[in-house]
Structure formats: C-alpha cells, structure tokens
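Comment thread on ticket #2218

A.B. wrote:
> Attaching the input chain for the structure job we discussed in standup.
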Amino acid sequence: MTTYKNIHGRSIQSLATDPTELSAEGQIWYNTTSDTFKTILVSEAFSSGANMITARRGAAGSFAGSQSSGLGFGGYTGSNAGVALTEEYNGSGWATGGALNKARYSAGGAGTQTAGLCFGGYSNPNQDTEVEEYNGTSWSEETDLPTAISSFACAVGTQTAALNAGGMPAPRTTTFEYDGSSWTATGALNTARQSGFQGAGTQTAAFAAGGDIGGSPGVSLATEEYDGSSWTSVSNCPPTIAVSAAGSGTQTDAILMKGTNSATYDGTNFTAGPSMANDFISKVGNGATTSTAMAFSGNTSGNPTSYTGTTEEFNRSANVITGAAWASGGTTNTARRGQAGIGTQTANIIAGGYTGSYISATESYNGSSWTTLPVSLPGNQSAGAGCGTQTSGITFGGEVAPKAQTNEWNGSSWTSGGAMNTGRQYLAGFGTQTAAVAGGGNYPNTNLTEEYDGSSWTAGNAMNTTRRSLSGAGTESAGLGIGGYTTTPVASTEEYDGTNWTAGGNLNQVRSGMSSSGTQTAALGFAGGTPGFSPTAIGSTENYDGTSWVTSATMAQGRAAGSGTPSGTSTAALQTNGSIQTAPTSHPGASEEFTGETTTVNVKTLTQS
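C.D. wrote:
> Ran it. Output below, let me know if you need it in another format.
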C-alpha cells in the first residue's frame, strides 16, 4: 500500500501551531489545536506598493531589474514637454533619482536601476531620437536612435543589449538593437503597431503583444516572438490587455497588466491572471521574472488627464504580502490642531491644542477609542512638543505664554517641570520624560537645542539649519529633526547623536507641519504641508532607514499641525487631528493608524469538498 510517507519521504506531523517557514511548502500536517489538516500553497496576487513621488502617465522604466530595484523616468503631467524626473524603488517605496537631460514621455526603457537606458519618446513638438544611459546616479547622453520614435510596441533588454520595435509616428514595423554604443536595424515586425505592452524578455528572446494599429478596428491582438533576428507570429493576446499594458518577465514566462486585468504568458498560451486593485492604463512594468513583478504610474482608464503614481506588486510565492496602509482610528472628543502627542499607536495621550481658541483638554487613546480625562494641562497651550509614554510623558514649549513651560505626565495627572531656557513654539521634540530633546522652533525662527534630564533643561549644540514647524523622532542620543520651515518649507533632515547635529537624507517632498514616529534608523514621516499647501501632497508618507527617505502609503485625509507618535515605531504609528491645509480652520477629529508591510506564509486548511 502506497502511503504519504512512501511518496514524500516523511510522515504527516502533528503540530499545535502552524509552521512559518517556506521550507514547509507542499507539506501536509495535522493541527491539533484546530483539529484540521493543513498545507502551505503557492499563490499569485497583487499587493499595493507606495505611490510614486510624482503622479504621471507615459513614463518609462527598467525591465531587467527586480521588484526591489525598480526605476521609473520621464512621463507626462500636463505639459507636452514631458518631465525629466527619475524615481528609484527599493521594494518598499520611491526615492528621487538623477534627472534626465531631456524631459520627455512615451519613451522606451530598458536595463536596471544602476544601469538604465532611455530612448526616444515625445518632447514637444515631435518624437525624439535622444538616448541616455543611467549609472544609478545620473544620466549621460549616448548615440541617438536612427530615427525619432515614441510609444514603442516593444522595448526590452539591458543597457548594453536593448531592443525596440514598432512605435509612432504612425504604426511602424521597424526593429532596432542597441549594443551599448550604436543602434542597428534588424528584422521587421509582421504587424505594424504602436503602444503595445511595455515589454518582457531580452534582446534575443522578446515578444510583442497587441498594440494600436490605427484606423479601424484600431487594436491588434497579434503576438509575435523575436529570436534575435526575426519575428514570428504566435497566438493572439486577450483583448483586455491589448493596448497600453505593462509587462514583466521573459519570452516564456511573462505577465501583462492593464486596468484591473492581468494575463500570464508561457511562451505558447495566455492565461487570465489575478485582478489588480487599481484601474489604470499606460502603466510601466518592471522585473526580470514574473515571481516578483510590479506596475506603476499611468492614468485612470477612460480619463487621460487623471495621472497616478499608483504602484502594485505582483508576487508568485508561498508568502502572502500585505502592503503598508493607513486605516481609520478612533475620533477624538475634541477636534483640534497643534496639540502635543505622547506615546504609541495603542497607548497615546494628546493635550492642549487650538479649536478657534486655545485649550488645555487631555485625552487618552487605547488603540480603538479616545477618552477625555478629568485633568488638564496647567494652562491653555498649542504648538508645543511632546514625547515619552502614556504613563510617563512630557510636553514643552507652545505659542501661549509662558512659552518655556514644561509639563510632566505620570499617567493620571500633570505637574510643572523645569522651564526651558528659550521659550518657543512649533519645535521638534523626542526622547523620554527624563531624557528629552527640544530642537528648532520660533519666534523668531531658531536652531537652538536643549536637553531635559527630568528636572531642568541644558543648552546643547545648535542645529545646522534654523527652522520651525519641524518634527522629531528617536532618542536623546539618536534623534531626528525632520523637514520644517525657514522662509519656505524644507526637505532637509538632521541627525542628533546626543551632542551634535549632522545632515541626513533629504525628504522627497519638502514639507512643514508634519508628524513623525520611530527611531533614527527606522522612522516614519507623515502628513505635513508642501509649498502652496497642495491638498494632494499633505497626506503623503515617507520611511527613513538612517540614510534615505522613500515613499510609503498615503493617508486618507491630508493634514498638518496634528500629532504623531515620536515614541512609536516606523511600522505602527498614529496621526491625530490637525488642520486641512485648504481649509485651515477645519480640524478633523478622526485619527489614522499606520501598519507597515507584512509577510505571512500562505497556510490553507484542507477539506473534502
């Protein structure tokens, strides 16, 4: 009699808890707690990634790279000249890269994040011949295309072995190969087309699927494979992904993505893939395999002027990936801005603030709801800083005299602490009740730093940049001062080692009035305004790894001058109250909670059905 052990070389295990390691993929075990048989299965699914810094359509990207080293460049944001912006993706979020020498959109892209290639495109008033190479930092001009082309039907390969086919003006059959220094014409497409999918494969093993052929019917479903010299017609692609789709993978294992649809290709047949969450077209793909592909930017289907920076990641894995996200938290009993915040996402205190007049009310948060406490700050206050925990916190500074006031919180009541040497408002604060740091602030704008030891403040070394409306995170010996306002909002970050401030990585978006959470090497910056107080920017979030900032999930409601969780983490933060920049007298009482990206093993319960 054949048994499971005969087939697989091991018996079915009895386990009280499910395994979490991928090595258990395909194995069956009996869970004694749930009284069920279980296994780990491979699944295919899309998950949300962080938005690009600049929403756009018509961007180009690298296709030989991986999901954790994406590259997007150029694009269209409303100007026929296009943009020169480059952004780099690290598997979590986007950061600013070196700008193209020539702004353009609908260009071709190839290569990797550190060896990228941009060619052709459209730059008002015509298609372009310009070719540029990227070294991971900056772009340099190289040998032009033999003819001006944009909206390629296929663009794939590496910086030294690239391929493009088709394109406009007018649907074309031309094919060109690039060897890192020059372009050579080679075998023509059988079907002239433009605006196919962004690409998959290599210079010697590529394929083109679908495309715009002009006139009526206007769309071709024809698929062709390239062998390094000529194109051969194969099976048709599905109409759902025929034009302006993104692609990733190889000639025999690829995925195409358009709108909310996806389809996989195995070198012979197309198969419907999992649905995408966001309906956008003219998107860009990235990835050398379909196991970890991604699509980004584009415009909402049916609305060519609705540009998006949306990013979605495709994973074929035994892991289930849930993207970072903001979710609704409890609503405060008194909506306000400028309050001081203390604690973490699930154990928080807010005190003071501004509702149209200054207040002293204190509320506590348990991770789901806010409770008004029967104690108040010793006087009305707003625009001060706070740090510490829900049972041992501190607030300091503010815009109501005495601006040097310090208040200590013991979990049930407030007491006055030692006064600051320099009273100020809109300052950064981080640390604990007995080891706190105050940096920057106004009036007038200052770069002064002070440290608190639990009873008194001592002057420390000044920040490098004088600013106000900045935020802080970390500890007394490893802190951050982030963003702020000089004469305009700034992007600069400074790191504090307990003695001196040094320059850190710049935010991708300049901002002031933001909130923050985490440590010096794992921080989260969120909300906060930008020049002009753009309502589309003030809900954006960025992660800091101790060196650079990358984009993360966007808040549902952009706001500024609220409170964060400087004693929290970069994966579990809380944003409370604040003001809507386009309506500064509007103070949302709602809180939002941030959860970082998570990865879990795809455990399935076996049934007889």
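A.B. wrote:
> Thanks. Noting for the ticket: Residues 326-595 form a domain with the Neuraminidase fold (CATH 2.120.10.80).
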